[in-house]
Amino acid sequence: DLRWVATCAGSGTITLWAAATGKAVWTLPPRSKRDATVDSPILEFSPDGKRLATAPSDSEVEVWDLATITK
Q1: Would the pTM count as exceeding 0.70?
Q2: Residue 56 and residue 35 in contact, taking contact as beta carbons nearer than 8 Å
Q3: 71/64 Cα distance (integer angstroms)
Q4: Is the terminal CB of the chain with fewer CB neighbours within 10 Å at N or C?
Q5: Could you give the CA distance from residue 7 to residue 27 in angstroms, rounded to a whole number?
Q6: Which three-class secondary structure state does DSSP give residue 18?
């Protein structure tokens, strides 16, 4: 699905961008100080593009509904 782009900054902050406009639509700060130091966070869209799974590489996964921005 080409509607969204998800990025993770070196600080651990995850940002969801609208692909069509390049504008940030949602920002999620690190869940903990430890999350901010993980080198390889996991960001994965569901096949239908309606959900985003986020997780530091050593922590639990959170799945976000992109229509409502809720877990």
Answers
A1: yes
A2: yes
A3: 4
A4: C
A5: 10
A6: strand
Residue 15: what are its φ and ψ, rounded to 5°?
-125, 135
DSSP letter assigned to residue 60: -
List phi, psi (to 5°) of 37.
-105, 5
Q: Is the pLDDT at 67 greater than 80, yes or no?
A: yes
**Nearest of 15, 65, 13 to residue 35 by alpha carbon:** 13
Chain position carrying tokens 């949602």: 26
Lowest mean pLDDT of 16-25, 51-60, 61-70, name the range: 51-60
Instruction: Check if the beta carbon of residue 25 is closer than 8 Å to that of residue 17.
Output: yes
Rounded Cα–Cα distance for residues 54 and 49 (Å): 14
